[in-house]
Specification:
The protein is α/β, with parallel strands linked by helices and 287 residues long. It has a single domain (4-237), classed as Rossmann fold, CATH 3.40.50.300. Helices cover 38% and strands 14% of the residues. The protein is built from twelve helices and eight strands. The protein has an eight-stranded mixed β-sheet, sandwiched between helices. α7 (144-159) links the parallel β6 and β7 (164-170). α1 packs across α11. The radius of gyration is 18 Å and the shape is globular. It binds adenosine-5'-triphosphate and magnesium ion (MG). Residues 17-18, 41, 46 line the site of magnesium ion. InterPro entries: P-loop_NTPase, ParA/MinD_ATPase, YlxH/NBP35.
């Protein structure tokens, strides 16, 4: 059975997409799931910095047909696996973004969950996973510029035929930011949770490990675990029931994806359904 796929997106830079991808993965791995993070931020890779490893082959080489996907997958602290982006401009230039669906097809049968960590902005490689994944998690800070971009990201995901699972707020607003519930309601998206500003997050990154792993009782770790449970409750239950049946995925051969894809896409018919960006200032009276 193919993995459930999740895109972690948000056009505003630095809101916590990579931190979320890594920590949702660690939380899901903790629950017994086999998880792969595919870093599709091809221009500005960060996973290698946050998890402190130096891969030889990366998604750059895979997308240039210079390496097989299985040769660019690495086990990382936190009990999950990563197909990281490379860090060079040359690798970025040579990467063929249109091969991303084929890469997913080659690896997904070996995992319960595949998470796409997408980059900021609206480049081809940032948007493609939103139409490819079963669901998209929109990450935003509770600040107006970030919420405005989150709104656009949700609209783009829907236009691409993707399903938006909801919005995850990360870090803090200022004193004037409304509560996450209010912003989520303005965005017309389910609220998946709020990961508070937490010094344990940068500290975990300094140690090259997910905060869920290195500071399991920190507020951020608790919040990420809760969001992972909300997103994958059914999967976590199944993994708990079949614990011990899963195989080690690293460097196994690829299997074909079976027919009868049951991915659950909800196509919102037009963009009028989304919140009008003109009223964001009043909804989020902050920047
Ligand atoms: N809950 C948090 N508390 C404190 N710092 C955080 C939190 N979440 C993320 N950060 C910090 O914010 C910075 C940006 O996070 P991250 O790289 O995950 O964002 P991003 O959305 O992936 O960025 P980009 O758009 O560049 O890909 C990092 O330095 C990270 O340590
Ligand atoms: Mg990132």
């Amino acid at each position: 059975m193919p993995a459930r796929t999740l895109a972690v997106a948000g056009a505003k830079g630095g809101v916590g997409k990579t931190t979320t991808s890594i920590n949702l993965s660690a939380a899901l791995a903790e629950a017994g799931l086999e998880v792969l993070v595919v870093e599709t931020d091809l221009a500005m890779a960060n996973v290698v910095d946050f998890l402190r490893f130096s891969p030889e082959e990366t998604l750059h080489e895979v997308l240039a047909a210079d390496a097989a996907p299985r040769d660019a997958i690495y086990s990382v602290p936190g009990g999950f696996e990563v197909l990281p982006s490379g860090t060079t401009v040359e690798g970025f230039v040579n990467a063929d973004v249109t091969e991303i669906p084929a890469v997913l097809e080659a690896v997904e049968d070996r995992y319960d969950v595949v998470i796409f960590d997408t980059g900021a902005g609206v480049s081809h490689e940032s948007l493609l996973p939103l139409g490819l994944a079963d669901r998209t998690v929109i990450v935003s800070s509770p600040r107006v510029a970030s919420v405005r971009d989150a709104n656009k990201t949700a609209e783009l995901a829907e236009r691409l035929g993707g399903e938006v699972a909801g919005v995850l707020f990360s870090k803090s607003g200022t004193g004037r930011s409304p509560p996450p519930e209010q912003i989520a309601s303005y965005l017309e998206l389910p609220l998946l949770g709020h990961v508070p500003e937490d010094p344990a997050v940068p500290s975990a990154q300094d140690s090259g490990r997910p905060v869920v792993t290195v500071s399991p009782d920190s507020p951020a770790a608790r919040a990420y675990r809760e969001v992972a449970g909300t997103l994958f409750e059914e999967k976590a239950d199944r993994a708990a029931r079949t614990n011990g049946d899963s195989t080690t995925a690293h460097n196994q051969g690829a299997r074909n994806r079976p027919d009868g894809d049951s991915r659950d896409t909800r196509n919102r018919p037009d963009s009028d359904d989304r919140a009008s960006s003109g009223s964001i200032d009043t909804a989020v009276n902050d920047n």
